Give the backbone structure.
Amino acid sequence: MSGGPIGAAESFHEAARRSRSQGAAFAGLDYDRAPLLVIWESTRSCALVCKHCRASAIMGRDPRELGTAEGFKLLDETAAMGTPIFIVSGGDPLQRDDLEALLAHGKSRGLRMGTIPAATERLTRERLAALARAGVDQVAFSLDAPSAEEHDGFRGVAGSFEKVMAALGWARELGLPVQINTCFAAWNFARLDAMIELVRGLGIVFWEVFFLVPTGRGSAMDGVRPEQFEEAFAKLHALSREAGFVVKLTEAQHYRRYLLQRPPDERPRAMGASAPAVNAGKGFLFVDFKGEVYPSGFLPVAVGDVRKTPLGEIYREAPLLKSLRAPALLSGKCGACEYRAVCAGSRARAFALTGDPLASDPACGYEPASFGKSVAK
Ligand code: SF4
C-alpha cells in the first residue's frame, strides 16, 4: 500500500475523531420515529461470489432495480424522516453509473453518505476520485482474512485482497476516510488476532466487525459460538481502548452487555451518551434493490415497498418493526434478561436459527439472573 501525503494523513485523524463523536451527536434520535441509518442494496450485480453473501449476488443488472429518480426519492424520504446516515450498498454499487449522482443528491439533502464498493476491476483510483468529488463521507472495503490466499479463496476471485490494499492507498492519497468490514464466522475465527494486527496498520478510521448471520449464501456456514463471542469481545474491547479508529461490532448486540459487565473505568467514555443500540428495525432499515423494505439485510421478512408507501410511514407503522422495537415482547432468555433494553440480542440471528424474530439470540452465553438454571446456555 502506498503512503499518502501528510495532509491526507491529518484528514484521517480528523475523520477518526469525527467518527468517534458521531455516537454522541446522534444520541437524541428517537428510534420509534426514525432509524440511525438506512442501507440501500442499490443493485445485486457483483463480480464476486463471496461464500457468505446475504444477497446471493448475480452477474448482470436486474431490470427491477430502483432507477435514479427512485433513488433520489428514497434519499429525500430518508432525510425527511430525520435519519442522518445513508449507505449505498450492493451487490457492487460501482455497477451503477449513477452512484456519484446518488451520493451527491444525498449530500444535498444533508445526509452523511457512505458506500461499499466491491474489490473488482471496476474499483479504480479514478472511480474513487469521482466518489470523493461527489462528496462521499466514507468508503468501506471488505477484508475477511489477513492474507490474500485466505481472503481471495473466500471471496471467490483471485486478486481481491491486493485490490483492497491498492484501494486503501488510493483513498489515502485522496484523503478519503476508509472503513474496513470484516465478517467473522467459524471458518475465520481463529484469524481474529491476525486480523487485528492487519487492520491496526491500514490507516483506517472505522473497523466494522460483523458476526455471521446464517442467511443467503451464508446459510450453509457455521457462525461463531457463544464462548467465542466472549473471547472476541475481550480482544475487540482491548483494541478499541488503544486503536486510533472506531471499532464497531455488528450482529453482536450482546457486546453492550459485555461492556456493562466491565468496571466503569473500562467502559467506553462515550457509551452513556451514545445513540441507543441499533438492531433490526430499531435504528436500522434495509431497502433491497427493488424497493422492498426489511428490518435488516439479514432478516428477510419484507415490511413494505417504497414504490407504494413512504419510507417513514413504513418504518413507524409496520407491525413487525414495532414488535422489534418492544423489548417486552422478547421471549426466552432475552425476554427475561436485565440487559434486554440495551441489548435484546440479534433479532436477525434469532430469526435465522429459530424462525422467530422475537426469540432469544442463540449466540449469547449469558444466563439472566431471573431465568431458570435448567435452561441451557
Ligand atoms: S440473554 Fe439476550 S438480552 Fe441478555 S445479554 Fe444475552 S442476547 Fe442480550
Notes: Residues 6-25 form the longest helix (20 residues). DSSP finds 13 helices and ten strands in the chain. The chain has a mean pLDDT of 88. The beta strands are 37-41, 85-89, 112-115, 138-142, 178-184, 206-211, 246-250, 284-287, 292-294, 304-305.
